[in-house]
Amino acid sequence: MPRAATSRENTREAILRAAIKVFAKHGYAGGSVEKISQAAHSVDRMIYYYFGSKEGLFIAVLEEIYRRMNEAEQRLALDVEQPVQALHAVIRFVIGYYRKHPEFVTLLNTENLHQGRHIAKLHRAREYSSPAIAVIDRILGAGQAQGLFRQGLAARDLYLLIAASGYFIMSNRYTLSAFLGEPLQAPEAQAHWEHFVIDAVTRAVSV
């Protein structure tokens, strides 16, 4: 790649990385173009050059965080012919990803506050959920063929169950910790929840 093209790509990536941090910290309304350009060690006009507008940048941020999770999912080494173990690995991945990437959860919270009006403009949104659902469908199929999992289960439903179990506790970790009077971010609490979800989901799909 020519040096000029590399420099442009580096500038774009720096803005995108900065925007993820700023929007996660300040939300969409508080994540100003000025704050993002300062965090990226760039200037405001470069944001407009690469992304067109603040909204265009936020849409690019949503696409980027979904792309990162999608790529991480694709790196999972799963043996679907061992469906129980494969299902457990998927659950550990999802819960672990939310835990390791709190900015992902925060940015999705922000977009839900805006009723999904930005992600609705992301035409590739469904592409990022399809591989995960497809993997779960293969795991379910193998488990059903081996007589381990119940018939009539939908991969979409199982995907939502796993995602909800991981997302909810991270999204509400501060209020839940105060409400329950226990530190849900503590490693032992996180390990307990992961074990509980694995057990609950396994029971839900088993014959």
What features would you highlight for this structure?
single chain; 207 residues; mainly alpha; Arc Repressor Mutant, subunit A; Tetracycline Repressor, domain 2; 2 domains
In this structure, how is the largest beta sheet organized?
none
CATH superfamily of the largest domain: Tetracycline Repressor, domain 2
> Pairing-aware structural class of the strands and helices?
mainly alpha
How far apart are the termini? 55 Å
Going by CATH, the architecture of the largest domain would be Orthogonal Bundle
Please tally the β strands and state the result. 0
CATH topology of the largest domain: Tetracycline Repressor, domain 2
Number of helices: 10
- Which CATH class of the largest domain applies here? Mainly Alpha
Domain module count: 2
Q: Can you write the helix and strand succession as a string?
A: HHHHHHHHHH
Low-confidence stretches: none
| Percent of residues in beta strands | under 5%
Mean pLDDT: 94
Radius of gyration, whole Å:
20 Å
Shape, principal axes of CA atoms = globular
- Into which percent range does the helicity of residues fall? over 70%
